[in-house]
Design a protein that fits this description.
- The protein is α+β, with helices and mostly antiparallel strands.
- It is about 10% helix and about 15% strand.
- It has 1 helix and 3 strands.
- The protein has a 3-stranded antiparallel sheet, with no helix packed on it.
- It is elongated.
- The mean pLDDT is about 85.
């Protein structure tokens, strides 16, 4: 939501009037320190899906990649 809100604040010159933003949110993945497995985290639970442990470390899903800018 933060990126989308900022994008809406960008002034629209003639050259940029048809620009748009497309955001794809990828799921967060975490590695469990107890069972060493990687699981996808849900919004309401921050624990391992395999052993239910809560000793997890995020290994992906917190990065931001810009794929392209076209106008």
């Amino acid at each position: 939501d933060g990126i989308n809100s900022c994008f809406k604040q960008v002034p629209r010159s003639e050259k940029l009037k048809n620009t748009k933003i497309e955001i794809t949110v990828l799921p967060a993945k975490a590695e469990c320190a107890d069972c060493k497995k990687i699981s996808i985290l849900s919004d309401d639970k921050f624990n391992c899906k395999f052993c239910s442990g809560n000793n997890v470390k995020i290994v992906s899903g917190n990065e931001f990649n810009l794929k392209s800018i076209d106008w």
